[in-house]
Amino acid sequence: MSAEATNPEARPEARPELRRRGRTRIDLRRLGRAALLGPTPRDRLPDAIGHVAEAHRAHHPTADLSVLRRAYVLAESSHRGQMRKSGEPYITHPLAVTLILAELGAETTTLTASLLHDTVEDTDVTLDQVRAEFGDEVCFIVDGVTKVEKIDYGAAAEPETFRKMLVATGNDVRVMSIKLADRLHNMRTLGVMRPEKQARIAKVTRDVLIPLAERLGVQALKTELEDLVFAILHPEEYERTRALIAAHAGEADPLPGIAESVRAVLRDAGIAAEVQVRPRHFVSVHRVALKRGELRGSDFGRILVLVGENADCYGVLGELHTCFTPVISEFKDFIAAPKFNLYQSLHTAVATPDGYVAEVIVRTRQMHRVAEAGVIALGNPYATATAAAAVDGGDGDDERVDPTRPGWLARLLDWQRSAPDPDAFWSGLRAELAQDREITVFRADGGTLGLPAGATCIDAAYAQYGETAHGCIGARVNGRLASLGTRLSDGDTVQLLLAQDASSGPAAEWLGHAKTQAARIAIGSWLRDHPDGDTPAPTPARAPLSVVGVRGGGGNAVADLPDAPVRLAGCCTPVPPDEIAGFVVRGGAVTVHRVECASVAQMRSLGRTSVAVHWRATADCRVTLTAESFGRPHLLADLTEAIARQGVEVVSATVEPPVEQRVRHTYTLQLPDACLLPALMRAMRDVPGVYDVARA
Q1: What are the residues whose beta carbons fall under 8 Å from the beta carbon of 365, sequence distance 6 or more?
Q2: Is pLDDT at 154 greater than 60 in this prediction?
Q3: How many Cβ atoms are within 10 Å of 614's Cβ, its own excluded?
Q4: C-alpha span between 364 and 309 (Å, rounded)
Q5: Which helix (H) or strand (E) holds 60?
Q6: 20 to 30 A from 354, CA-CA: which of 87, 169, 245, 451?
Q7: Backbone angles phi, psi at 437, to 5 degrees
Q8: 26 or 374: whose pLDDT is higher?
Q9: Per-residue pLDDT tens over the stretch 605-644
Q10: Distance CA 100, CA 180 (A)
């Protein structure tokens, strides 16, 4: 907004060395003087936006520039007479914001809305006028930016302000693209503000806008915003980093020589590639200095290799690792596994014969465009949307169907609706944006869930089922039973187990395991609505309940050792036709194990005598089964009845105390025929409440 405008030369962050290298600074004072001359003839573009048109045509050669001319004429006439604090005509601000977006490749609709983004708020232009002149799409974006722009930077207003910003971003990501470019221009010209206001704006930029730029993949804006915030909030570290970069500028830089060696290697391999040296920005140099201590010449930049096809990226990687010494710990494949913000590249590092280590990034040109501009590079994500998705000038609650919306944004939009108060939303937003990595887990039904790194089964439950997850009592992760607090990894398969009792609710300790704000808000809300007096008292710990019958010996296993007693091992309870192994133990008895039992390797390592064992012709056998179930009345009786109906004798039964409404039953059973085992296990699984039966 204009309140943040000032003299661009007043602070160190406006110095040339801090700006993105390679970007020409446009003389906004000259553009302002041109703007005061008024509109130009209708057959050509006004001189003041010539740079915008040139940058736009570089990305979109066939773009129709007439709509930009009309938008500029309306913006210039509306803002005429308004001045920024630096003394520049106000029109220089929307021009600068539009130029930033044009350089990143924004499509024409975004640039049109950018030129008009302050007209509805600061002039007499109305949304109806914008709609009539430029259509529903531009009107929708301008309305979203207008709502975001109504910001009072007081601490009490920030939470609700950024809730609106989040909703506006969810409705159209181009709204946030314009907001980020607007903030970048204002940060470039922040010098005449009072120091305390500079710090407050910089902190909001650091805590919310920079993470949002990262999430939207707009690295070009994010890196410059980081440097500007760094200069304001950490002036001493900034000056030290600036001195480091200045000292390096006077020394021999090894990176151009390494880049030339890479070009030669790729030429010899027949791979068409463009090799560049990319200097690090200030914050990146600062982070590397903290990580590595004393910096060497190759630490001040990275080598970027651009190729035409995905397959060429891996060809370049192979040549680099063949002709140079690779630093394996630095290799990352973001092509096979893209980051949550659409970023794709191969990262590696190679050591040269003279001892330098150079970081190398390999990507296609399309990947490079997306890496720099993120969602801005995607063009219009609503090009196929129906007219029904357009705004009607109302309160802006209609949600757009965005095929490019990332999972993190969908999660934020979901939980912000149920955030109990602005302060909770504010703290939750900052915590959510602080997550810099995302994982994908697979559901049992074949779907996927996008979750922040460090998420647990509880987070997966609320992401999949919403409030129904209150009744979740456990999970299977990659086929194995797991507690709800189990942390998930990228690629895990999760099957969530829900209680049959609809009145079930979460435990207070779930809050310690939940990482996503959606889960934490849902759990906290349920706990507030069900104080301790309304919830069932926890089941006191008790000893396992055991029902023990007469224990047999070796069943129908026979050892090739005359007169030696034979026992079936309780750890694996082998039954015909399992492949078995026998070992002599104390007292001369032979213990029979399944060959895959872990005890077999232990017996052999202890030097136990191995004995050949086999099954008798008789079909009876003994087996131990565990039944995992939800706790409910009469479960033990129902399971025992199901076993009895199969004609199987219960030798012993143990029931463990309930844990999180789950109960484990362990049965040692005597079967008249080993062939009955599959049918017996199916019958036990059919008992209501039982969700798994397995061999011990």
Answers
A1: 306, 307, 308
A2: no
A3: 13
A4: 6
A5: none
A6: 245
A7: -145, 150
A8: 374
A9: 877 888 888 777 666 777 888 888 877 777 888 888 888 8
A10: 10
| pLDDT tier for residue 653 given thresholds of 50, 70 and 90 | confident
Identify the CA nearest to 81 among candidates 35, 126, 129: 35
CA atoms of 518 and 237, how far apart (whole Å)? 37
- Whole-angstrom distance, CA of residue 5 vs CA of residue 32: 14
**Inter-residue contact 483 to 456 (CB < 8 Å):** no
- Catalytic residue from among 9, 47, 103, 122: 122
How high is the pLDDT of residue 22?
40
Closest CA to 360 of 265, 224, 498: 265
Q: Pairing between strand 472-477 and 649-655?
A: unpaired
Amino acid type, 207 = D
pLDDT of residue 34: 42
User: Active site includes 121?
Assistant: yes
On the 0-12 / 13-18 / 19+ scale of CB atoms within 10 A, 114 is buried
Q: Which of 4, 121, 172, 467 is catalytic?
A: 121
Kindly report the number of other CB atoms within 10 A of residue 37's CB atom: 11
Split at pLDDT 50, 70, 90, the class of 430 is low
**CA pair distance 10, 406, nearest whole angstrom:** 39
Q: What is the token pair recorded at 20?
A: 């993105």
Please state, in angstroms and rounded to a whole number, the distance separating the CA atoms of residues 527 and 309. 53
Spatial CA neighbour of 68 closest among 32, 95, 93? 95
**Farthest-apart Cα atoms in the chain, separation:** 114
Condensed to tens digits (0 to 9), the pLDDT of residues 86-134 reads 778 888 889 999 999 999 999 999 999 999 988 888 888 888 999 999 9
> How much is the pLDDT for 417?
58
d(CA 671, CA 681): 12
319, 474, 656 from 496: Cα distances, Å: 45, 6, 22
The Cα–Cα gap between 640 and 637 comes to: 5
pLDDT for 360-378, tens place per residue? 999 999 999 988 888 887 7
The whole-angstrom separation of Cα 396 and Cα 375 is 21
User: What single-letter DSSP state applies at residue 404?
Assistant: T
Query: Residues 602, 606, 607, 611: is their CA dihedral positive or negative?
Result: negative
Q: Return the structure tokens found at 3.
A: 């309140």
Tokens representing 691? 């969700």
Instruction: Kindly report the length of the chain.
Output: 696
Q: In this structure, are residues 518 and 462 in contact, taking their beta carbons and an 8 Å threshold?
A: yes
What pLDDT is stored for residue 161 in this prediction?
58
